């Protein structure tokens, strides 16, 4: 709209001209040219936005940026210098137009010493040296640049230049250049997030596989052993845990009733820490222990030899293992045990309705080479209940901030042993009460495992002449 108070009168201008039709045609051509240029710019911006929405290959996308930047600003050259996520210049992704006669520039940038250092993009002095290098190369050329940024981090530099040296860059040109740079920053950030997401998906798949393998290493069924029932469960804090329990025949060659009456090893352990490292170490320890069990040695010697075998590997990982090892002879209902600083199992006696701890002296597996362990034994009576557990149970946090602790576990074991007949029912009630204590919206901080051994209530005489020792 023309201001009526303006000193410029379009009618007078047209009438005062020698060739009003020529001037009118010129103005119309000018407006059409501006309109076409505006439409062209809009089309270019729409193209890059479309590419941003649909691109799957960052390298191909970055190839477009100098072309679009030079066309949008109406110049004949543009240079894109992307940075790696660690701040170094991404030499493989350098882009320039026109490519003819500018190979030397790309070599200069690739050989720019500071640009190959980690953290280059955060060093303002080095960035200025890069800008100066570009300006020196185009000594007699009009050139402007802007930073490519995303989430507050430098992702690259974008330069545009006019090789004729006569181009004047306006504020509008700077805004258009910054728009291209911002869209490029979004593209780079999206690509990095996509790569990170794919990496985490890959790690999650590997963790899932590791968790599946580890779960298969824990007993998926309970052996039939004369005179007792077994039940067990592990709740890892993460997908892969460092808790371990096992039921191992000391003479696996026995079959049928002979195997049921043979000596069995009952083990529970915990690697300090959790997650994949702890799970890997426990898997390694499981193999060593299963080999040691075949020796038939008493529990204290088993732990001594296991400590010697695992000492070097555990020392290198800066982790230690607590382990309670016991073996059970069904013919005498005798349980021998030794402890490597693990939580002592709790023994509930049916006759006295009280609970005691099964403990013996012994240090952590992997702590010292000269560690010694003490073997003790106890006779289990009909109706007795023995609970093996890891510290993830007693250290479980409650909704009010307190720990589940051993005192609660003892009271709960007494209640469960009095109320339930089967080992599976006792175990189910223990975990049910633990879950209630932790709360629905809270997770365990550490792996929690429990094994319940229940001696059958019916009295059976020992097999005096049928020992498999």
Question: How many helical elements?
Answer: 12
Overall geometric form:
elongated
Q: What is the spatial order of strands in the main beta sheet? A: 5-14-13-10-11
Q: What's the helical proportion of residues?
A: 40-55%
CATH homologous superfamily identity of the largest domain: PPM-type phosphatase domain
- β-strand number: 14
CATH class of the largest domain: Alpha Beta
Termini separation (Å)? 109 Å
Largest sheet: 5 strands, antiparallel
Number of domains: 2
Average the pLDDT over all residues and give the rounded result.
82
Based on helices, strands and strand pairing, what is the structural class? Answer: alpha+beta
Radius of gyration computed on alpha carbons: 38 Å
Low-confidence stretches: 1-8, 461-469
CATH topology of the largest domain: Phosphatase 2c, domain 1
How does this model look, in words?
This protein is α+β, with helices and mostly antiparallel strands. It has two domains: 20-194, 2-Layer Sandwich (Beta-Lactamase), CATH 3.30.450.40; 219-455, Phosphatase 2c, domain 1. Helices cover 43% and strands 20% of the residues. It contains twelve helices and 14 strands. It has helices at 10-15, 20-54, 58-73, 103-110, 124-137, 171-217, 256-260, 276-293, 299-317, 391-394, 405-419, 423-438; strands spanning 77-82, 95-97, 142-150, 153-162, 228-235, 243-249, 264-271, 321-329, 334-340, 346-349, 354-357, 376-379, 385-389, 448-455. The strands form three sheets. A five-stranded antiparallel sheet has the order 5-14-13-10-11. The protein has a five-stranded antiparallel sheet with strand order 6-7-8-9-12, covered by helices on one side. Helix 2 runs antiparallel to helix 3. The longest helix has 47 residues, at 171-217. The radius of gyration is 38 Å and the shape is elongated. Residues 1-8 and 461-469 have low confidence and may be disordered.
């Amino acid at each position: 709209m023309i201001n009526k108070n303006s000193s410029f009168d379009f009618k007078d201008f047209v009438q005062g001209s020698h060739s009003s039709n020529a001037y009118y045609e010129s103005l119309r051509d000018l407006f059409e040219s501006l309109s076409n240029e505006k439409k062209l710019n809009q089309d270019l911006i729409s193209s890059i936005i479309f590419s941003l929405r649909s691109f799957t290959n960052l390298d191909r996308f970055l190839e477009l940026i100098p072309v679009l930047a030079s066309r949008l600003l109406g110049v004949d050259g543009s240079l894109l210098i992307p940075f790696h996520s660690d701040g170094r210049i991404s030499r493989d992704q350098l882009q320039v137009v026109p490519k003819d006669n500018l190979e030397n520039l790309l070599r200069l940038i690739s050989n720019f010493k500071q640009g190959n250092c980690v953290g280059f993009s955060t060093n303002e002095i080095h960035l200025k040296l890069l800008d100066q290098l570009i300006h020196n190369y185009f000594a007699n050329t009009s050139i402007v640049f802007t930073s490519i940024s995303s989430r507050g981090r430098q992702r690259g530099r974008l330069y545009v230049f006019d090789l004729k040296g006569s181009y004047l860059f306006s504020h509008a040109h700077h805004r258009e250049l910054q728009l291209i740079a911002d869209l490029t920053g979004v593209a780079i950030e999206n690509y990095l997030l996509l790569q990170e997401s794919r990496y985490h998906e890959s790690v999650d798949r590997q963790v899932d596989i590791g968790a599946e393998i580890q779960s298969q290493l824990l007993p998926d069924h309970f052996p039939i052993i004369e005179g007792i029932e077994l039940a067990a469960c592990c709740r890892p804090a993460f997908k892969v845990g460092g808790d371990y329990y096992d039921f191992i025949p000391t003479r696996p060659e026995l079959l049928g009733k002979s195997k049921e009456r043979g000596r069995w090893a009952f083990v529970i352990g915990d690697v300090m820490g959790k997650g994949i490292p702890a799970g890997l170490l426990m898997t390694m320890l499981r193999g060593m222990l299963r080999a040691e069990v075949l020796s038939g040695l008493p529990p204290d010697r088993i732990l001594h030899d296991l400590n010697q075998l695992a000492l070097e590997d555990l020392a290198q990982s800066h982790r230690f293992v607590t382990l309670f090892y016991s073996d059970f002879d069904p013919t005498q209902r005798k349980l021998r045990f030794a402890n490597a600083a693990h939580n002592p199992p709790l023994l509930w006696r049916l006759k006295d309705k009280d609970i005691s701890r099964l403990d013996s002296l012994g240090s952590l597996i992997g702590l010292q080479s000269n560690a010694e362990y003490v073997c003790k034994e106890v006779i289990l009576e009909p109706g007795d209940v023995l609970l093996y557990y890891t510290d993830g149970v007693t250290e479980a946090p409650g909704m009010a901030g307190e720990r589940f602790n051993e005192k609660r576990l003892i009271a709960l074991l007494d209640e469960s042993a009095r109320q339930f007949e089967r080992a599976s029912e006792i175990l189910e009630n223990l975990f049910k009460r633990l879950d209630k204590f932790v709360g629905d919206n809270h997770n365990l901080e550490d792996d929690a495992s429990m094994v319940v051994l229940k001696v059958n209530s019916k009295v059976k005489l020992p097999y005096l002449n049928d020992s498999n020792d």
